[in-house]
Amino acid sequence: MLHGFEQWVIELLRDLMQSLGWIGVLVAMAIESANVPLPSEVIMPLAGWMLIKEQNLPLYFVFWAGFWGAIGNTIGSLTNYALGIWGGRPFVEKYGRWLLISKRDLHRAEKWFDRWGDKIAFFSRLLPVVRTFVSFPAGVVRMHPIRFTIYTFIGSFIWCTFLAWLGYITGENWEVIRAYMRPFDIPILIALLVLLLLYIKHKWSEFREFDFNNSSYTPEGE
User: Fold this and answer.
1) pLDDT of 146-196, one tens digit each?
2) Integer Cα distance of 111 and 105 in angstroms
3) Structure letter (DSSP) for residue 128
4) Residue boundaries of the structural domains of the chain
5) Is the dihedral of CA 203, 207, 210, 215 positive or negative?
6) For 202, how many CA atoms within 13 A lie in the half-sphere containing its CB?
7) CB proximity list for 42: less than 8 A, separation 6 or greater
8) How many angstroms separate the Cα of 4 from the Cα of each of 10, 80, 171, 179?
9) I need a labelling partner for 145 at 20 to 30 A (CA). Which of 4, 71, 119, 218 fits?
10) C-alpha of 201 from chain center
């Protein structure tokens, strides 16, 4: 079933790129960064083959592909970031205790993103699965928007250029790239699930002893 879905995605992307060219790459990567299952491991290698190699364009056009892919990634990521600020944060502040997220947790996350947010925004763009979902929590904790945009673009540019290059050098066999990368999805998903379960276990024990959501809590230094 998964393979059939990916074949449908490939045909959809072919039509999109044939109709819109590089704008099609931008649109596809923006959708991918907005939590829609259009794998970049399919989009960018296809662009490297279809819009560069098949058009007999020189290799340096992979940087052009990386640029359009990164622009799309950044647009989609900023959409998720905005949702985190305007929708996710009010939801967490109001209903966070039902998700085992206290006001103190939110403040800790803000401090953590303030210190490490640049690296998170950058390196997450180089990881399958994680790269799609990091923007929303960055918005929830209100990471600095300019820094978020800059590091998201840089990380996305490197990732998109690399995948476009792979599509260029593999030519008509570009689809093998996704086949080689697909096995990495499962270990990452398992690791994220384990971390989630450990967090739930820790927070459940904590919440049984303390009420971190009471209104008397104020962040450190205030």
Assistant:
1) 999 999 999 999 999 999 999 998 877 766 666 656 555 555 556 556 655
2) 10
3) T
4) 2-209
5) positive
6) 9
7) 6, 9, 10, 13, 175, 178
8) 10, 28, 22, 13
9) 218
10) 26
pTM of the entire predicted model: 0.71
For residue 148, give both structure tokens: 């978020």
Q: What is the DSSP letter of 51?
A: I
Write down the residue that tokens 């991918």 correspond to: 32
Q: What is the DSSP string of 200-220?
A: HHHHHHHHHH--TTSTT---T
- The two most distant CA atoms of the chain are separated, in Å, by 66
CA distance 149 to 154: 9
pLDDT tens-place string over residues 105-122: 566 666 767 777 777 788
Name all contacts of 196-199 with Cβ < 8 Å and 24+ positions apart.
199/100
Element (H, E) at 55: none
Question: Residue 181 has what DSSP assignment?
Answer: H
